[in-house]
Design a protein that fits this description.
The protein is an alpha+beta fold. Helices cover 27% and strands 22% of the residues.
Length: 584
């Protein structure tokens, strides 16, 4: 079978429908939207232009887009060198989600809105010239990025069978975001990274929120271990609240956890942690949450990458030492731990594996896939297609997200097709695209080489092999355990619910199989939460709705107990002895 035939074999009916729409005969009804910029501008623009339709006005359409089956409608096109005096057209040939074309949007009354997500041009140090959306303090959220243009929503009557043409004016600008201010306990740091600046060809920065221990000012000679929480972009340090919840707040129901007043629960937990942190018995450490947004996502995955640059080295050798220098950290590998959930769980484990002597423990909760034989529900090495499992006479779509009862609200195709609407060339700023950006080689065009065809799901096994050798954490441990094993003993701790919404427990099962037979023994822990969803953190006594709010209090005492019981050897022993004398 030739390559074209193989590809056609996997094309979904949705793809054929898009093709059919583009071949409609002249004179067939073609609804369209003409989008222009009514704001003062004297320069051309690059970016991604979105058109959104919503059946309700509970929020602006830009805030009602998701990869779920009940998402509101969005279309997107790439725009280069947009003359401010010209209009852009979105018509029936433009791909959308959930409906793939304007021709398949039902007749009805809609609230309509357009948004332009602006790109910048980077002349990278590797010689590639690329156009990407730089983070502007919002954590790579296309619908909230400062400087993006959008229209005031309005109501229209839409009929796909009529030759309707609607004009939309971009008349609003997303305002800048004010950075958080320092407090007695929380300090903020931002540094220009030499390594990342060289890679991206423009100034690039790393940041962090640092929670100072109780008694920090009263003990100017005391030095502290570092507890590093990895995860998605933190606007400020999370889970620490000096004030109790305001009594007059309106309780908000959490659909995910089926709990009334969950907003108050979150605040109560944060206030309770404040009382623990400032009380007499909690370990005295520096707690750090890192900011490393980039042109592809709200964080870098804390590793070196062909497409994102040397974020692993920049965090480990530039940012961490600077934090320890400014805030009296001990500055030794034995005095640093890593933890986090989901993306942060993968980052914690990856940083521990790639920099084994720089960190002394990782606590990885519900980590993103750590074995690509179970890349959620796809085996990228053996499966031919990511979206479908095919038999002789039929095929079934692979699920993307479930609840604790196994009910599905999104498929892998849904998730990836939304990303294709939000951005081509891995520029959606979403989950599957950042995995691709981090793990894939750089293509000839300067953008990540796709792991699979975004429209059809056909897997590229050459790219999969690159992923295996560079970022499949279980494969890397198995391959290099002779040298890695002695450096990782007692450092690896993994926790996941066995009903994780994104099937992340599947990869953990495979990792545990390796760790249990590894020699020398890994001497760590792998634990599962019965019927627990994303992101269970190892607490068997609390429901997931509570335990997910207790990462700091769960892992920091575990780490301190570890370093008390396992002192370092050699030159590091002196710093450990000094710390033990100061430890309350």
């Amino acid at each position: 079978m030739n390559k074209t035939a193989k590809t056609a074999k996997w094309l979904s009916p949705l793809v054929f429908l898009v093709c059919a729409v583009s071949l409609l005969p002249r004179g067939y009804a073609q609804p369209s939207f003409s989008i222009s910029n009514s704001l003062p501008s004297s320069k051309t623009m690059d970016g991604r232009l979105f058109l959104m339709l919503s059946i309700n006005d509970e929020a602006e359409p830009r805030f009602q887009i998701s990869d779920r089956f009940d998402s509101q409608q969005i279309f997107g096109i790439d725009v280069e060198n947009w003359d401010p005096d010209k209009s852009q057209i979105i018509d029936s040939a433009v791909f959308g989600f959930p409906a793939n074309s304007l021709k398949t949007v039902p007749k009805g009354t809609y609230h309509v809105q357009a948004l332009f997500h602006q790109y910048e041009t980077f002349q990278r140090g590797d010689g590639h010239r690329v156009k990407l959306p730089m983070d502007r303090g919002e954590g790579q959220r296309w619908n909230q990025a400062p400087g993006n243009l959008y229209s005031t929503p309005r109501t229209i009557e839409f009929d796909p069978d009529l030759d309707q043409s609607f004009e939309i004016k971009l008349d609003q600008v997303v305002p800048p975001i004010q950075p958080p201010s320092d407090t007695k306990y929380i300090k903020h740091i931002r540094i220009q990274s030499k390594l990342l600046t060289e890679f991206w060809g423009r100034p690039m920065y790393l940041g962090a929120h640092v929670l100072l221990p109780e008694g920090y000012a009263e003990h100017p000679d005391r030095r502290y271990p570092l507890a590093i929480m990895h995860g998605h972009f933190p606007a400020d340090l999370r889970g620490f609240r000096p004030a109790p919840p305001a009594p007059d707040q309106e309780p908000i129901f959490s659909k995910r956890f089926n709990r009334e007043g969950y907003n108050l629960t979150v605040q109560e937990e944060a206030h309770d942690f404040y009382k623990l942190w400032t009380g007499p018995d909690f370990p005295r450490v520096l707690l750090v949450e890192i900011q490393h947004p980039n042109p592809f996502y709200d964080d870098s995955y804390a590793v070196n990458s062909a497409n994102l640059g040397p974020y692993g080295d920049a965090i480990t050798y530039e940012l961490i030492p600077e934090i320890e220098k400014r805030f009296r950290g001990i500055g030794e590998g034995w005095a640093r731990c890593l933890y986090g959930g989901s993306t942060g769980g993968w980052e914690a484990l990856a940083a521990q594996i790639f920099y084994p002597s720089e960190y002394n423990a990782c606590y990885a909760a519900c980590p993103d896939p750590i074995d690509f034989n179970a890349f959620t529900v796809v085996n990228i090495y053996e499966n031919e297609n990511a979206y479908f499992e095919k038999g002789t006479f039929g095929m079934v779509e692979r699920p993307g997200r479930r609840n604790t009862l196994g009910h599905i609200d999104s498929t892998l195709k849904d998730m990836n097709h939304l990303e294709l609407v939000l951005g081509t060339s891995s520029r959606s700023g979403q989950q599957w695209d950042i995995w691709q950006a981090v793990y894939s080689p750089c293509g000839e065009d300067g953008y990540p080489v796709p792991i699979w065809d975004k429209m059809t799901g056909k897997i590229d096994h050459d790219v999969a092999e690159y992923w295996r050798e560079n970022y499949d954490l279980t494969h890397i441990m198995r391959r290099d355990w002779e040298t890695l094993g002695p450096q990782l003993q007692g450092k690896i701790h993994i926790y996941v619910g066995d009903m994780d919404n994104y099937y992340l427990n599947n990869a953990v099962y495979l990792t545990e199989e390796f760790l249990n037979q590894a020699q020398p023994a890994y001497q760590g822990e792998v634990a599962y939460g019965d019927r627990d969803e994303h992101c269970w953190n190892g607490d068997p006594n609390q429901p997931n709705a509570i335990s997910r709010l207790r990462y700091h209090r769960m892992y920091i005492p575990k780490f301190i107990q570890r370093i008390k019981e396992h002192p370092p050897t050699g030159d590091d022993k002196a710093s450990w002895d000094q710390w033990m004398k100061q430890t309350p």
